[in-house]
Amino acid sequence: MSAPLKIAVLGASGRMGAEAVKAIETATDMELVAALGRGDSLDTLLEVGATHVVDLSVPSSTETNVRFAVEHRMHAVIGTTGWDEAKRESLATLLAKNPGTGVLIAPNFALGSVLASAFAATAARYFESVEIIELHHPNKVDAPSGTAVRTAELIAAERASAGMDPSPDATETQIEGARGAVIDGIHVHSVRLRGLVAHQEVLLGGTGEQLTLRHDSYDRASFMPGVLLGLRTVASRPGLTYGLDGYLELGR
pTM of the full predicted structure? Predict the structure, then answer.
């Protein structure tokens, strides 16, 4: 039997971090060697011999955390938002200098959500109209969600490859924001409401019909199977992977 993966959780005092700590502690093939919060020294990762890092911290520190991990040949699984295209490109350049090290940036770890986004991208080739509604708790600091951004990117890429026109929209006047944000030509609407956790609907419309793909996470425990899958896979996928769908066999 192989030795357990030595895992460190960054952002361990947050809601997602606390769930990750519990999940890793109960996984028989993993050993939790550090659970760091804001202000804790990253040198601790070296002292405990961490081989894998889960970053569930905050946008202001995630880049520093992950670059430290990569520079010390630790594989990293990232669930923190803020990784725009420029930051991903910079990270990919750093990874090229550290061959053999893998990093996964996952806008969402819920397997159902990842699958729903992939299914929506496939379906969007066959419908004239598509829009996204994402719904989260009011403590979420970013809008739209990383999941919605990723879903819009996937949908836009599929529609572009199919040579499709933009969704029809005759709007001439509007109050600012009424039509939501526009990501790669896809309208995304954000709802922040007490009682919600993480939810997303993709609305696809054609003549005389509508297809709705919805995923609901009612508890942050729903994200943990994806976190564990990422940790178990990342070492075998050197370089940067954006989206947990990159680790799933989706035939795409």
Answer: 0.87
